Structures are given as C-alpha cells and as structure tokens.
Amino acid sequence: MRKILSCFVIILMSFPAMAEHHGEEDAALHAAIKSFNHAYATNDVETYFSFYADDATVYFGAAGRENVADYHELWIGLMEAGGGVELNEASDIQVQIMPGGDVAVATSFIDNRTRSPDGTKSTSRAFETDVWQKIDDKWKIISLHYSGISAEE
Asked: How do residues 138-147 score in pLDDT, each as one tens digit?
C-alpha cells in the first residue's frame, strides 16, 4: 500500500512541472503567432517569412497550393511595385498544442484589406489555419490554409 501511495504522490507532483513546461511552450507559441500576424500587417516581408519553414506549403482558396519560396517572391514583387497590406486583424484565435508539445494548430478569422500596385483596394474576411512546428527550438509554420468567407456566410 505504501508503494502505491508513493507512486501516486510522485505522479501528482509531476503535473505542476508538466503544466509549467507547457505554459512556456504556449507563451512562446502565442508570441510567435502575434509576431507573425504583426509582420504581415505591417508589410515586414522578411520577418513575416522568417516564421515559415523552408519547405512550408500555403493554400489560398481557389489559388490552390503554393510553396513558400514562390509565395515569398510574389510578396517581394508586390512590395517593390507599391502594393501591400493595409489592414490584417485576426480574431477568435484558437490554439491547440498536440501531444508531445512540438506541433500546434492555430485557427482564426481574418479581416483583411490590401492595396494592389495600381492603388486598387480590396477587403476580405477569411478563415485561416496555421500548422506550427517547433524546429530547432523555434516555432515555424509548416502549412497555412487561408479560405475566403463569402458575404453570405
């Protein structure tokens, strides 16, 4: 009986240590998500793309799947031509860290306004899902899926 109680106490003592560890991961992940969204909203192209894994894929609704290198080149061209983001607000951010603590999924609604190089502005509302993975002790996006929401939805 003493062994059972000892094991039970040891197990209970480990829960706060595990919670503290996950709390640190959660704080680092939330900081990365916030910085990623801020970099996009302020047209900080290199900081924005620093959050992507080199082999990440991105999906933009009907545009389909793209690799991150092509997406990066598209954004560099857009900025050089005078286009950019004027508004990008995320709301209802939900984050789930997978068992093991090195993969997470973040979902949110996005209100966005962009400016094309000719000055035309477009607004959209979308749902975004980002799959994050801890790589070399840094949170990186390995997949991003952005789907526009129609006015009827």
From this structure: 999 999 999 9
